[in-house]
Amino acid sequence: MNVLITGAAGGLGRAFAIECGRRGYRLFLTDVNKDGLMCIRRGLERQFGTTVAAIDCDLTRAKSVDRMLAVIDRYNIRFDMLLNIAGIDFEGGFMGRERENVVNIVALNNAATLRITHAALERRRSGRPFTIVFVSSLASMFPMPLKAVYAASKRFLLDFSISLRQELKDCDVNVLTLCPGGLATTPEALRGIAVQGFWGNATTNSLETVARKTLDLALAGKGLYIPGGLNRLLSLLGKIIPRPLVAAVIYKRWRRAQSRWPTFTAN
To answer: In what helix (H) or strand (E) does residue 4 lie, and over which residues does it extend?
Structure first.
């Protein structure tokens, strides 16, 4: 199986790359972090003996993506699976961030994901099933003050993936949306989990478990995966409780948690 993984140099992307390598899949990895990308490539080849190609690419820039696609086409590489892992978030309120930080969330989480998904579908292996995984978030289930742009960008991915799944179901394409809670992907993410106390720890998911179960469910034809019983319960409550009330409760909790943020970022 030929698998294209974005955001493969660290965090969840790295976990997916390792799980795919363990299964013997042939991998094409991309990330903006060239050094990290080459490191994971060497590690996968050494540990699993699988075929791994890797090209650093800024998915938010069309010309950078076109250069990567030119290499893919030069060697006539065709894919069976796309794992859309690349994404970003910034902690804090809307007006507490630089303007371009806010815009970059949408540029990577949404625009870049659409760009690479369209390109990968054009380069699927003929006559074989194709699988797409989008990484949304538990945050996509709620309006989230102080994480408003991130949550909205993940809601876009959730709605888009559900629509695309319906659109492509007769073309032997399965689309699965992954909606995890917290993930220990970066030092900033770890601090974000820590300041939330009990709820941060209770809704956090293991990277390795998420990667393994996501692949299993996607290949089984499933369309949605929310890891963790508590997270599934919270997603259900988000559908029942009026959204303005949900926003008010989340704002109160996040404002309290983020008031502790400087204590953690200083460590």
So the answer is: strand 2-6
| Residue pLDDT, tens place only, 212-233 | 999 999 999 999 999 988 888 9
CATH 1.50.10.20 fits 2-265, yes or no: no
Q: pTM (2 decimals)?
A: 0.89
In the predicted structure, residue 266 carries a pLDDT above the cut 50: no
Expressed in percent and rounded to 5, the helix, strand and coil fractions of the chain are 60, 15, 25
CA 207, 209, 210, 212 dihedral sign is positive
27-56 as b/e, with b when 16 or more CB fall inside 10 Å?
bbbbbbeeebbeebbeebeeebebebbbbb
Residue 8 and residue 20 in contact, taking contact as beta carbons nearer than 8 Å: no
For 174-200, write each residue's pLDDT tens digit. Answer: 999 999 986 655 555 445 544 555 445
Identify which of 147, 153, 183 has the alpha carbon closest to the alpha carbon of residue 261: 147
Task: Kindly give, in sequence order, each residue whose CB lies less than 8 Å from that of residue 106, ignoring residues fewer than 6 positions away.
Answer: 149, 153
Mean pLDDT confidence for 70-74: 98
Does residue 45 contact residue 72 with C-beta atoms inside 8 Å? no
CA distance 203 to 140: 14
